[in-house]
Amino acid sequence: MRIWVDADACPKVIKEILYRAAQRVGVELTLVANQPLTTPRSKFIKSQQVPAGFDVADNWIVKVVQADDLVITADIPLAAEVVKKGALALNPRGQLYTEENIRERLTMRDVMDELRSFGVNTGGPSAISRGDRQAFANQLDSLLTKARTE
């Protein structure tokens, strides 16, 4: 298993959890962004800078991800592509995207986009809470444990 991170919008606190996990279990972690990233020095942690542009990082991740890899993203269309390729997708709040729930999430995203296009203020996502961080860490640990035992 490799972990790929849609890093442009990934909260710093989530990256810190990922850094510690990569070191602890020895899994390769790559942060993908269209800007330079500073990461801890580690043989397990890398960054990949891609050109600026709409969905360039997402498209790069979809191109390289393999079945059973893990992608960290809040981007639902990216998660849908990842799941379609047989990989796992986890959002920074600890929610795992699956074949069973991704269609519903895409539909809700499209509805919210439609509302925003009509000028409705739908608000943005709330800040990552302590509970969200804990849910993410727990789900990540569960996925990494399962991957090591398979």
How would you describe this structure in keywords?
alpha/beta, 150 residues, 6-stranded mixed beta sheet, 16% strand, 6 strands
What is the topological layout?
Layout: E1 2-6, H1 12-25, E2 28-33, E3 45-49, H2 56-64, E4 70-72, H3 76-84, E5 88-90, E6 96-97, H4 102-117, H5 130-149
Parallel strand pairs: 1-2, 1-4, 2-3, 4-5
Antiparallel strand pairs: 5-6
Helix pairs in contact: 1-5, 3-4
Q: What form results from the Cα inertia axes?
A: globular
Oligomer: single chain
User: Numbering strands along the chain, what is their spatial order in the largest sheet?
Assistant: 3-2-1-4-5-6
- Integer-rounded radius of gyration: 15 Å
Beta-strand percentage range: 15-25%
What does it look like?
By secondary structure, this protein is an alpha/beta fold. The protein is 45% helix and 16% strand. Strand 1 (2-6), helix 1 and strand 2 (28-33) form a beta-alpha-beta unit. The radius of gyration is 15 Å and the shape is globular. The model has no long low-confidence stretch (mean pLDDT 91).
